[in-house]
Amino acid sequence: MAASSVSDPERRWPWRVAVLVLLVGWMAFPLDAPWINDEPHLLLRALDANAAGELPWLGLQSQRGTQYGPLGLWVDQLLLFVTHDIAWIVSLRALLFGAVLAGSLAWLARTLGVTRWLVVATLASPWMWFYARLVWDNSWNIPLAALTVAAYASFVVHRRASDLVLTAATGTLMVLCHLMCGPLLLGIAFHALWCRRGDLGRHAVKLAIAVAVLAVLSAPYWQTALSGAFAPAEDGSIWKGALYPLSAPRHLMAGGLSYVFGADWLAAWPALLRWPYLVCLALSISVAFWCIEGALNAVTEPSRDESEALRRSLARLGLVVIALHCVVGGLTRTHGDPHHLNATWIGALLIVWSAVQSRIEKAPGRPRALAVSLAIVLGVSTLLVAGRVHATSGTRGPRYGPTLRAQLPVARLLARLPPNVRIETDVPHIATFPHALQALVRLEGRSTPTSTAQVVVIRWASRDPLDARLEPLPR
Predict the structure, then answer these.
(1) What is the DSSP string of 60-116?
(2) Cα distance between residue 134 and residue 252, in whole Å
(3) Spatial distance between the Cα atoms of 236 and 63, rounded to a whole number of angstroms
(4) pTM of the predicted model, to two decimals?
(5) Distance CA 386, CA 70 (A)
(6) In what order do the strands lie in the sheet with 470-474?
(7) Please, which of 249, 325, 342, 463 could form a disulfide with 183 given CB 3.0 to 4.6 Å?
């Protein structure tokens, strides 16, 4: 298998400008990011670790007993060395997330010989916008999955030991982020053993040394993670868990956002915004059909050249990754949460990219039109969603909640009040996760109290159920 060039050479600057615009958009209005539970929890731990001069080896722990890795915590520690301004923390995180993801996808696109506008279309997804700005550990598996697959695809083509070692290194980083990366890493191992056994043998010594070094470096995490308990969801369904990974293409579409914003979030939109979004949503569903087409092509259609053979081989890797995730999902009864797809979404991308590029090459009179159209559709969707979040300061629902913009004025008031001030609230996010405001107060830094208020009532700023602004009332 050999790398190829896109049949119709495309200018570099248009798609690069589009990527730059998207990354700047991710950094814009950082205070519109959500801030509920895990995000402030991680940041508080990062503040404590920096104050103690420590490098923790354990991240958060799931409700089922799974011990997550420390990578997200390390990133937060690094960002806190740069700034304690939460707006800049969100923006810098989005920039780092986007730089790794865009660079990895561009590398993968070059290796596979696909139009770079597929990179733009992927970055334009509202799911990428959402996860890039979420100060959370789990979502780092999105760019790391892209980097791992890009390195592995380069190994398949060039057969270099350096690409194989990089694949192992980025795979280790994924493990240190979240164990849900297992299906992807197992899929890559199976594909390598099937397609590149000879090259694995030729680089066996270098690979063994790299794996040994990575295992030793990450040993402090493994010692705890392997000794921890894990229990499947008692109320989960085996069949739902097994079928849920088939929704992996959602990260490349504009649908499924009701999980984040609530079941009725779209019905409350003004018609002027709702209908354009619904049109974009309907058009983006074509990604699901391309995924089916790409899967069928990968297992039934003969390849016309080496470039297409490479893409279809990697599409078969994508199928294996999703199939392994189905097995794991069934065993653990895990379903319903899109972040469980953050490591295996790349499998769907390999399948979709293969199908779209095949269509492009069959219609030489319309080069890249399909990928450019998808990028526009998803970009408009993201713009509409971001505009709606900005207008309402988030949601009153449990998964997005009031944005940082809504919570920061409350935190700044608390920072000027006595530390023992009592908070009374009917806002469920504040009542259930009081550490969200505590983290913001620590970032702001307490000042000399300017009031003797003993109680602060925090309530919704209006009776509009769509308005997530908060109003603090000191008493």
Answers:
(1) -B-TTS-B--SHHHHHHHHHHHH---HHHHHHHHHHHHHHHHHHHHHHHHHHHT--T
(2) 18
(3) 14
(4) 0.94
(5) 30
(6) 422-425, 455-460, 470-474
(7) 325
Buried b (16+ CB within 10 A) or exposed e, 137-150: bbbbbbbbbbbbbb
Question: Residue 405: is it exposed, middle or buried by C-beta count within 10 angstroms (0-12/13-18/19+)?
Answer: buried
| Amino acid occupying residue 39 | E
DSSP state, residue 339: G
pLDDT tens for the 475 residues of the chain, in order: 555 444 445 667 899 999 999 999 999 999 999 999 999 999 999 999 999 999 999 888 877 777 889 999 999 999 999 999 999 999 999 999 999 999 999 999 999 999 999 999 999 999 999 999 999 999 999 999 999 999 999 999 999 999 999 999 999 999 999 889 999 999 999 999 999 999 999 999 999 999 999 999 898 888 777 666 556 666 678 999 999 999 999 999 999 999 999 888 887 788 888 899 999 999 999 999 999 999 999 998 888 888 899 999 999 999 999 999 999 999 988 888 999 999 999 999 999 999 999 988 887 656 578 899 999 999 999 999 999 999 999 999 999 999 999 999 999 999 999 888 999 999 999 999 999 999 999 999 988 887 788 899 999 999 998 899 999 999 8
